[in-house]
Specification:
With about 110 residues, this protein is an alpha+beta fold. The protein is built from 2 helices and 7 strands; from the N terminus they run αβββαββββ. It has one domain. About 25% of the residues lie in helices and about 35% in strands. The protein is globular, with a radius of gyration of 26 Å.
Length: about 110
């Protein structure tokens, strides 16, 4: 009986050593293309190419709409940066706001 228990213990230990440990896998956040937000009907007063990473398009568009497409350095817990578009195109500014691992990007015309 002792031999059977000892053999079972050795067998369990060998199987545990041979089984690879579970690896925690965190999926990469998905980037969604969310269209545009119009501020003035029938005009170029809009935020285009809205993209959301880690949150829904609805939340991203609400964020852009509520900031009028021109947030300051921080808005609703996000830190925002702005970069002017190239000088040889229709004038626009690129915005990128990050917070809690989420990212919202757009172009403000």
């Amino acid at each position: 009986m002792r031999r059977a228990v000892a053999f079972a213990a050795v067998l369990v230990a060998a199987l545990a050593a041979a089984t690879p440990p579970a690896v925690a896998h965190t999926p990469k956040p998905v980037t969604r293309s969310c269209g545009q937000v119009n501020f003035t009907p029938n005009s170029d007063d809009l935020a285009a190419n809205v993209q959301a990473t880690g949150l829904t398009c609805g939340l991203a568009r609400d964020f852009v709409r509520d900031s009028r497409g021109r947030p300051g350095a921080s808005f609703r817990g996000f830190r925002c940066t702005r970069t002017p578009g190239p000088p040889d195109s229709l004038p626009y500014t690129r915005f990128r706001c990050t917070g809690a691992g989420d990212v919202i990007r757009w172009r403000r015309f």
